[in-house]
Design brief:
By secondary structure, the chain is α+β, with helices and mostly antiparallel strands. The chain has one domain (28-177): 2-Layer Sandwich (Alpha-D-Glucose-1,6-Bisphosphate, Chain A, domain 4). Helix content is 34%, strand content 36%. The protein has 5 helices and 7 strands; from the N terminus they run H-E-H-H-H-E-E-E-E-E-E-H. A 7-stranded antiparallel β-sheet has the order 1-7-6-5-4-3-2. Strand 4 (93-102) and strand 5 form a beta hairpin. The relative contact order is 0.21.
Length: 178
């Protein structure tokens, strides 16, 4: 009986140890970026995308819960502005804060998810002038999953999961602005 218990405990220890050891060698960082070309002047496009409230119009995540509640603090389009949300299980709860703005070119934000689980990520929107009436918008999302949660990066395709939502939002943005 003792020998059988010892074998069971060893097997359990191995089953627990294998993923924990594997997580030591799995990447922790991820980055996803998508872009779209919009037939509008760069400054006009930037003036629109640099307002976090406007993301509620073109973001895929807003559509997942049309009844979610939003609160805002600060001056939209400036460093320190915060857009917070509370929604259903598909969108959870969190906030997005503008952390840097380079007028006409780039806006960086920090996403803080509260529910369904706590995590933080960074996003950016970059506008590049391709011509007087044409702008490329690049929307990126970067993050880190610390040990041992980084093990999920083996089974989660962040490029697909986040990338398709970014593509959707950018296509909707293009339609809105053109």
């Amino acid at each position: 009986m003792k020998k059988a218990l010892k074998i069971v405990l060893i097997v359990i220890a191995i089953v627990i140890a294998i993923p924990l050891v594997t997580a030591l060698f799995v990447k922790k960082d991820y980055a996803v970026e998508r872009s779209v070309v919009i037939d509008r002047p760069r400054q006009e496009v930037f003036d629109y995308v640099s307002l976090l409230r406007n993301q509620n119009v073109y973001s895929k995540w807003t559509e997942l819960d049309p009844g979610q509640e939003f609160t805002y603090s600060g001056t939209d389009g400036t460093v320190g502005f915060i857009s917070a949300w509370k929604g259903n299980k598909d969108v959870g709860e969190g906030e997005q804060e503008i952390t840097a703005v380079t007028d006409g070119h780039r806006m960086d934000t920090r996403l803080r998810f509260i529910k369904p689980f706590k995590s933080e990520s960074d996003t950016y929107l970059i506008t590049e002038e391709l011509g007087p009436e044409q702008t490329r918008v690049r929307w990126g999302f970067t993050g880190r999953m610390n040990y041992p949660m980084n093990l999920f990066l083996l089974v989660m395709d962040m490029e697909e999961a986040i990338g398709s939502d970014l593509d959707y939002g950018l296509q909707k943005l293009k339609t809105l602005l053109e």
